[in-house]
Amino acid sequence: MAEGEQHHHLFHHKKDDEDATKVPGGGCSETSEVTGMGSGPGGIDYRKEEKHHKHLEELGELEAAAAGAYALHEKHQSKKDPEHAHKHKVEEEIAAAAAVGGGGYAFHEHHEKKETEKEEKEDHGKKHHHLF
User: Fold this and answer.
1) CA-to-CA distance for 107 and 103, rounded, in angstroms?
2) What is the DSSP string of 28-54?
3) Which residues form a coiled coil (predicted)?
């Protein structure tokens, strides 16, 4: 690039006359912290992290369901096609293992989501005392 040009970024549109500190090589130097209702004292957005783990948990559940359905399909194919029954049984076992893996991943992400909720409550000082 030419010496006088600056890099134009998508989110930090500032005019040349505004209070943007110039960085050697062009661009703007800005520091920003995440603030809002879901962010903690360290700038961690717990709601975003919780939604992320929930999304991954649902993907794990979807993987388990799809692999389980494929395993049932291969089981049916092994009975339907006796010439290639061994191949279908092997594929059934592989699909069953993938279903177990997907279920385990969903379980892992569920616990990550619960841990994020716990960290958010601890950071905000919201501890629920059970009366019963």
Assistant:
1) 6
2) EE------STTB-TTS-BHHHHHHHHH
3) none
Looking at the whole model, is its pTM more than 0.85? no
Position 122 confidence tier, pLDDT thresholds 50, 70, 90 = confident
How far is it between the farthest Cα atoms of the chain?
Answer: 78
Structure letter (DSSP) for residue 18: S
Q: What 3-state class would DSSP assign to 70? A: helix
**Displacement of CA 124 from its chain's centroid (Å):** 23
| 22 three-class SS | strand
Q: Which residue do the tokens 């010496």 mark? A: 3
DSSP letter at 104 equals H
CA atoms of 127 and 44, how far apart (whole Å): 19
The SS3 of residue 21 is strand
Those residues whose C-beta lies under 8 Å from the C-beta of residue 39, and which sit 6 or more positions away, are 45, 46
Measured over the CA atoms of residue 9, residue 10, residue 14 and residue 20, the dihedral's sign is negative
